[in-house]
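Lecture 7, part 2: worked example. A protein chain together with NAP.
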Amino acid sequence: MTREEGIQHLKSHMLVKLPSPTKKFTGQTIIVTGSNVGMGMEAARHFVRLDAAKVILAVRSLAKGEAAAKSIAASTKREGIAEVWELDLASYQSIEAFAKRAQALPRLDIIVANAGVLMYKFELAEDNETHITVNVVSHLLLTLLLLPKLRETAVATEKPSVITFTGSFTHKMTEFVERKNENIFAELNNKDTARMKERYYVSKMVQLLTVREFANELAKSTKGGKIITNVVNPGFVATDIMRHSTWAFQLWYRPLRWIMARSAEEGGRTLVHGAEGAEETHGQYLDDCKIGATSAFVISPEGDETQKRLWRELRAKLEAVHSGVLQNI
Ligand SMILES: NC(=O)c1ccc[n+]([C@@H]2O[C@H](COP(=O)([O-])OP(=O)(O)OC[C@H]3O[C@@H](n4cnc5c(N)ncnc54)[C@H](OP(=O)(O)O)[C@@H]3O)[C@@H](O)[C@H]2O)c1
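Predicted complex, written out as structure tokens:
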């Protein structure tokens, strides 16, 4: 991250007051992944408060999901709107089962692809290191499987359906050296060269680049039913995302979080802003509830070339998991 980017972030956390969302989601069905805690749960709470008809808490622990649904119902005084569905993004089988279940929904207006992991150990989940599976590949698989349902809803409601991804400013904190290899995903699977201290940042870079290319592909599609997709940077938010860090890290991280971080509710506001799906947000990186600036690399010619390579590699991966799924675009 450059000095200027650091100062910009500091200013944004100290001076910017994020607007509390007021736009209604009346009648809409919304899926929020990773919504048993943190800003996913707070975004879900906003959607219920803002009149959504059904908010699906897509979580890997049903018990934690039920506790979140109970808390949301109590605070919004709207019973039965938040529903808990099982989804483990570390398992393609779980994603397929979730998507199959969602096909029976009468409508699907929005997906908030929010769940994420931050860990320091190299562990595989399916065919990738866990950050890459959970933070990148699985969310793309899920949204591609649900694209027909989103399009069908967009046609019926005569308004775009939305897929918003929770990204991160930390994509600016990596040089992303893995890009120098012939096959980037293969290199990210190499335990011997894996730089786990930076892996979370790298996963957010790969997510941003692949979603930008996904947005380009969507814009070229001639299928009916418009889709808006964007990547939200919620900023530095007081959640438990750093739960796997060392105690030495926690020693300076916790006071910093106490001084600087936004609350999970404020973080949730940024997700709701992305989910509102304003046309101009398509393919964009959103910061402080408006269009923001990515790292210089992302918009450089090399960033563009890397984006296209990553997309080609990801397409092959997704095709291997579910043949024909790319045709949903
Ligand atoms: N906090 C920040 O400062 C910050 C900044 C930028 C971006 N973000 C991003 O914001 C998003 C939400 O994180 P948060 O800060 O709210 O942290 P959090 O409270 O730790 O929430 C993460 C959520 O992801 C879920 N999750 C993790 N692995 C999963 C899996 N395999 N399948 C399904 N769900 C899974 C977690 O479920 P369990 O409870 O079962 O683990 C939890 O619900 C993440 O994408 C994170 O990268 C956070």
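The chain has a mean pLDDT of 96. The first helix runs from residue 3 to 15. Keep this in mind for problem set question 3.
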